Fold this sequence. Notes:
It is built from 9 helices and 11 strands. By secondary structure, it is of the alpha/beta class. The strands form 3 sheets. A 7-stranded mixed beta sheet has the order 3-4-5-2-1-6-9, with helices on both faces. Strands 7-11 form a two-stranded antiparallel sheet. A hairpin with a 2-residue loop joins strand 4 (about 55-60) and strand 5 (about 65-70). The chain is globular. The termini are far apart.
Amino acid sequence: MNSAICTLFEGxxxxxxxxxxxxxxxxxxxxxxxxGYRGPLPPWAKPIKPEGDQSIYQVADGxxxxxxxxxxxxxxxxxxxxxxxxxxxxxCPKAEAMFYFDPDIVIHCQWSYFxxxxxxxxxxxxxxxxxxxxTHPLRYQWNxxxxxxxxxxxxxxxxxINGGFQGITRSHKEFLNDWLLVQGIMGKEIGGLDKVTIHxxxxxxxxxxxxxxxxxxTAAMTGQPLSIIGKEGMNIVSGGFTMSHSVGxxxxxxxxxxxxxxxGFPPSLxxxxxxxxxxxxxxxxxxxxxxxxxxxxxIAGAIGRFYRRN
Length: 310
């Protein structure tokens, strides 16, 4: 299958992009990774080749990153369907499938499994905050809002989906247009996607987790089939084999592991797995930084075996 992979990043999330790409390479993906970004290009992306509105970094034989600067004022968490549709229309129209990964994810299984997964429906994963009952008042709020715009919702699962990953084949591409429509209505309700962060108010607000709420609403509105893996799909709980997602604010590259462990928060499996793929073929960290971080992870993990908060 001719697949395209994409991600969005700014600031120090470039560390995550590097390690995500390393994990893809380790598990057999070859092709282009499309990275939309704001700010400077990553310091590790050298040498780089300008080509039109893109900058191309050759990672290894058969694998490249195509960096695309983005001028959107949207928070990136609300820009995913726009970006994927633009890629499909203007940059990789021959792609048979499009996969989006947040830059704090690494994969663990052979790339071919993701392509097999997406054939059965839009590939998605359950979130840490799942389940959200199909009779939950938040879902009724969503239905009230979208029915007002002529789009009633049909909830068929109690699973609440994580916004960090989507796999979509060309035959299910209409899901992206549905998601874009949902985002547009959400933007009207909250005053515009340009000034939205990941949390709008508290959870009683119907759109407090903007990208994920919109994605879950899309799942209830679309006519496209879905294929949803549980929390183990992102190593939120044990038993997974597809990927790890560093959910929350403690990202692999900005966490003081020893300090966190002393306060009862041992390293997450996702953050440990990040450093499994942090060395090749892209080297986002210096050898000294990598050595010291791995040492601190080892010590923090030992502390976590005896002391952790429930």
